[in-house]
Structures are given as C-alpha cells and as structure tokens.
Write a structure and sequence with these properties.
Length: 232
C-alpha cells in the first residue's frame, strides 16, 4: 500500500477532486444534446419502433430530457471511466500506463457492447415483442417507456461487456487468480445464462444467445488476456 489510509478513504478523496467538474459537464452536455433529441429520437424510432404516442402533457418533454441525459452520459463515458478507474486504482498502486490501458479498453468494450445491443439485440427483441400484435391487438407504444426501454438496455449491455476488464483487474489486485477463472468455467456459463435471461428484452432462446454468447467469449478472452499478461 502506498498510504496508510484505508482504501475507501483514498477512493473517496480521488473521486471528490473530479466529481464537481464531471457533474457540471453532465448538466452542460445534457442541455446541448437536448436540442438534438428530436433528430436522435426520430433516428432511433425509425430503426427500432413504429409510431410513438404520449399519454400525459409532460410525457414528450420528459422523454427528451431522459434521452438528452443518456446522450450526455454516453458522450462523457471516457472521462467518467478515467475518473472512476483512477480513484479505484490509487489504493492499489496502478501505474499511469496501466490506467490508460484500462481506460482505453473499458471504453472500447463499453461502446462495442452498446453498438451490439442497438444493431443486433434490440431489433430482434422488439420485433419479437411486437410480433404478438394482430388486427385486434394493435401496439400503442408510449414515447417515455420506449426511451426508458432502449436507454436502459443499451447501457446495461455496455456495462456487462466490461467482464474482461473486471477479470483482469480482480486478478491484478490479487482478489482471484487466473486458475480460478479457468477452473470455474461451468459456473461462469450458468451465471452468464442467468444474466442473459434477466437482461435480454425477450425470453426467447435466440435473444438469450445473442447476449450470452458474446459474454462467454468475453469471459474466455479475459482468461487469455491474463495468460498473455502473465498474471497467475
């Protein structure tokens, strides 16, 4: 340990240095993106859904605010990742180069996960759900619920695609070993299947595989990365 202070105190002190600037940036970027949300919503709607409706006076405004906030978080993700990783890594003596590498690959996997969700998983899931409609049962989709549905799942995919980063970091600080991940593949497969069943927008096996398959590949990639880095 570099310092005698508890790791949590070091983490909080590091976060405090950047949290105010990050909070202001999120508000500012949200305000800017808000003026772009009509075009963004139109683009997302044409890709994923049919007509959207609203059932309260404030419904459209709140949907645009949520979409703007999502856009701000999405755009500022590299900064947020760097702030959090720097704070987490401080008590564990993570070097500047290691921090840069962790930040780069964390952002890369996050954006890959969100893009995969947007172009692959969500279209399949939404088409499956809307497929239950008929002449007697017409879908009437609330703009607010649609924005919630899309943004939550896109962010969820971005987060869970951090699996190799978490594996490498856990092994780097000595919480687990590479052999632990290798020995417990069957439990990893079970856990991945449960996560895929809970997070995919539909219960069908195709969508579960669209999430579970890449997750297991990422799990194996984490083991390979640990081997290449010679982390026991």
């Amino acid at each position: 340990m570099i310092e005698s202070r508890p790791g949590l105190v070091v983490f909080l002190n590091e976060m405090r240095r950047s949290i105010r600037a990050l909070f202001i940036a999120i508000i500012a970027v949200t305000a800017v993106v808000f003026f772009l949300t009509p075009k963004i919503l139109e683009l997302v709607q044409s890709h994923l859904a049919e007509k959207l409706y609203f059932f309260s006076v404030a419904g459209p405004f709140l949907a645009h605010v949520k979409l703007a906030l999502f856009g701000a978080l999405y755009a500022l993700m590299p900064w947020m990742v760097t702030v959090v990783l720097r704070a987490i890594g401080k008590p564990f003596q993570v070097t500047r180069m290691q921090l840069l590498l962790f930040s780069f690959f964390t952002c890369l996997l996050f954006y890959f996960g969100t893009i995969f969700c947007y172009f692959v998983t969500l279209p399949f899931g939404i088409n499956f759900l809307l497929g239950f409609g008929s002449e007697e049962l017409k879908p009437v989709i609330s703009v607010g619920r649609f924005v919630n549905f899309v943004t939550v799942f896109i962010l969820a995919f971005g987060v869970i695609f951090q699996l190799p980063i978490l594996m490498v970091f856990a092994a780097k600080i000595g919480v687990v070993t590479r052999s632990f991940f290798s020995r417990h593949r069957k439990y990893a497969m079970l856990l991945i299947a449960i996560v895929a069943a809970l997070l995919t927008p539909t219960p069908d096996i195709v969508n579960m595989l669209l999430m579970g398959g890449p997750l297991y590949v990422l799990y194996e990639a984490g083991i390979v990365i640990l081997l290449i880095m010679r982390i026991p």
